[in-house]
């Protein structure tokens, strides 16, 4: 004979069910669902590559084309080469430095506001520059206002693009970064021909640049869409990064690389005019920036398919250093064009691989904007001081470019060495490992 089954009141069952439900809810709160993996393709993902291409066009394209402004201001403002270089270097400084704040604000869910403010400041900077007649007016409008606007658009947009790709991230960023080469080709040619050949004058040249920027930015303002949920709380910096050895070495690598990288972009035109006797150095700048379309795409394809992004960056950095050392021996127009082609390819590859690798320097995708912003903020000081140091060396040596060339080449060499250290810290000495 079986013992009688125990029975429980219905109220006890409901209480037990409620307790289990509460526990499940608490568990969900303590362990929020992890974000889904990046789609690595699809219409929305590739649309964001196109949008980021436009952002590169209007930020790095303008920065890479500063050489034509360097040449024009050296003729019209009566300032030293070093003083004029500060306008371009401060502009690039803010493009990077604002990333510290803009990246964290983007992670917190305020991408669209940050991006739109950036576009407004870029346009304001260009239109105000068109009204400037003195060096300090140009400095405030073109270096500070335009530079801050660049930073408020570039870093947030880059962090959004990285949310859509993982396996093909280097290729996606490379395609987007080709916009910098296109912008570096279009804007300098536009400026040169409107100012020096078509008699539009400096004011209307800057306004036309502003109208082009406004038209191309309109789809970006409305179509950019963050994929991951916002991270409302947290520090403005990721403190764990300060003990992340690969992150530290990579940050140092990019600092030294960019300390010397922009020497050619700023001074190749004046070198061609003063030392080689080339009357139209704009064509050199066109070559330097134009080949960057290939330089930004081809290495990223190789990196994604076979060797890895960081593995690809290291030999390119060493090669760029060697080439700048060789620049000191160039004494003819033909040699200078060869230098412009090869250096344009290498510099473009470094510029494309830098943000691609930077987005991988965090184990937590929700902190990508914060960490990318930290790297950009650190590297910004290299962009701030590098071209100006080269200008000061040039002035100190009475127009001799040798000292500036040695500084630029040695800086890039140190950057390559630090990139190698980052690779060893992250993946050891196994050369077959894709990193």
UniProtKB/TrEMBL annotation:
<dbReference type="Pfam" id="PF07690">
    <property type="entry name" value="MFS_1"/>
</dbReference>
<dbReference type="InterPro" id="IPR036259">
    <property type="entry name" value="MFS_trans_sf"/>
</dbReference>
<keyword id="KW-0812">Transmembrane</keyword>
<feature type="transmembrane region" description="Helical">
    <location>
        <begin position="406"/>
        <end position="425"/>
    </location>
</feature>
<feature type="transmembrane region" description="Helical">
    <location>
        <begin position="310"/>
        <end position="330"/>
    </location>
</feature>
<keyword id="KW-1133">Transmembrane helix</keyword>
<dbReference type="InterPro" id="IPR050327">
    <property type="entry name" value="Proton-linked_MCT"/>
</dbReference>
<protein>
    <submittedName>
        <fullName>Major facilitator superfamily domain protein</fullName>
    </submittedName>
</protein>
<feature type="transmembrane region" description="Helical">
    <location>
        <begin position="245"/>
        <end position="269"/>
    </location>
</feature>
<feature type="transmembrane region" description="Helical">
    <location>
        <begin position="336"/>
        <end position="360"/>
    </location>
</feature>
<feature type="compositionally biased region" description="Basic and acidic residues">
    <location>
        <begin position="15"/>
        <end position="25"/>
    </location>
</feature>
<feature type="transmembrane region" description="Helical">
    <location>
        <begin position="83"/>
        <end position="102"/>
    </location>
</feature>
<feature type="transmembrane region" description="Helical">
    <location>
        <begin position="202"/>
        <end position="224"/>
    </location>
</feature>
<dbReference type="GO" id="GO:0016020">
    <property type="term" value="C:membrane"/>
</dbReference>
<feature type="region of interest" description="Disordered">
    <location>
        <begin position="1"/>
        <end position="39"/>
    </location>
</feature>
<feature type="transmembrane region" description="Helical">
    <location>
        <begin position="109"/>
        <end position="129"/>
    </location>
</feature>
<dbReference type="GO" id="GO:0022857">
    <property type="term" value="F:transmembrane transporter activity"/>
</dbReference>
<feature type="transmembrane region" description="Helical">
    <location>
        <begin position="372"/>
        <end position="394"/>
    </location>
</feature>
<feature type="transmembrane region" description="Helical">
    <location>
        <begin position="135"/>
        <end position="158"/>
    </location>
</feature>
<feature type="transmembrane region" description="Helical">
    <location>
        <begin position="281"/>
        <end position="298"/>
    </location>
</feature>
<comment type="similarity">
    <text>Belongs to the major facilitator superfamily. Monocarboxylate porter (TC 2.A.1.13) family.</text>
</comment>
<feature type="transmembrane region" description="Helical">
    <location>
        <begin position="43"/>
        <end position="63"/>
    </location>
</feature>
<keyword id="KW-0472">Membrane</keyword>
<feature type="transmembrane region" description="Helical">
    <location>
        <begin position="170"/>
        <end position="196"/>
    </location>
</feature>
<dbReference type="InterPro" id="IPR011701">
    <property type="entry name" value="MFS"/>
</dbReference>
């Amino acid at each position: 004979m079986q013992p009688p089954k125990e029975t429980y009141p219905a109220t006890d069952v409901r209480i037990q069910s409620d307790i289990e439900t509460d526990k499940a809810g608490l568990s969900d709160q303590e362990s929020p669902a992890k974000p889904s993996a990046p789609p690595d393709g699809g219409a929305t993902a590739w649309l964001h590559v196109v949008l980021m291409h436009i952002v590169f066009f209007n930020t790095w394209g303008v920065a890479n084309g500063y050489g034509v402004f360097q040449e024009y201001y050296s003729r019209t403002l009566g300032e030293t080469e070093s003083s004029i270089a500060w306008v371009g270097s401060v502009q690039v400084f803010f493009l990077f430095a604002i990333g510290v704040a803009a990246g964290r604000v983007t992670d917190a869910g305020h991408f669209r506001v940050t991006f739109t403010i950036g576009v407004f400041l870029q346009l304001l900077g260009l239109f105000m520059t068109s009204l400037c007649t003195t060096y300090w007016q140009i400095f405030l409008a073109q270096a500070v206002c335009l530079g801050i606007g660049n930073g408020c658009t570039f870093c947030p947009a880059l962090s959004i693009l990285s949310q859509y790709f993982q396996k093909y991230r280097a290729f996606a960023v490379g395609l987007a970064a080709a916009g910098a080469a296109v912008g570096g080709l279009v804007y300098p040619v536009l400026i040169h021909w409107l100012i020096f050949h078509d008699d539009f004058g400096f004011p209307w040249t800057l306004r036309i640049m502003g109208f082009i920027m406004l038209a191309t930015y309109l789809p970006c303002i409305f179509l950019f869409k963050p994929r991951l949920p916002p991270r409302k709380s947290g520090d403005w910096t990721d403190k764990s990064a300060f003990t992340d050895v690969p992150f530290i070495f990579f940050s140092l690598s990019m600092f030294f690389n960019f300390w010397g990288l922009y020497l050619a972009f700023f001074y190749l035109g004046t070198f061609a005019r003063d030392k080689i006797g080339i009357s139209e150095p704009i064509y050199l700048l066109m070559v330097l920036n134009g080949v960057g379309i290939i330089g930004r795409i081809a290495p990223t394809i190789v990196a994604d398919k076979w060797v890895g992004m960081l593995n690809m960056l290291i030999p390119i950095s060493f090669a760029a250093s060697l080439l700048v050392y060789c620049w000191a021996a160039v004494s003819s127009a033909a040699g200078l064009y060869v230098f412009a082609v090869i250096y344009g390819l290498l510099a473009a590859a470094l510029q494309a691989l830098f943000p691609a690798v930077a987005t991988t320097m965090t184990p937590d995708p929700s902190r990508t904007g914060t960490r990318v912003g930290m790297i950009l903020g650190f590297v910004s000081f290299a962009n701030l001081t590098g071209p100006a140091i080269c200008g000061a060396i040039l002035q100190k040596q009475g127009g001799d470019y040798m000292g500036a060339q040695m500084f630029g080449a040695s800086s890039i060499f140190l950057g390559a060495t630090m990139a190698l250290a980052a690779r060893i810290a992250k993946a050891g000495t196994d050369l077959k490992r894709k990193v």
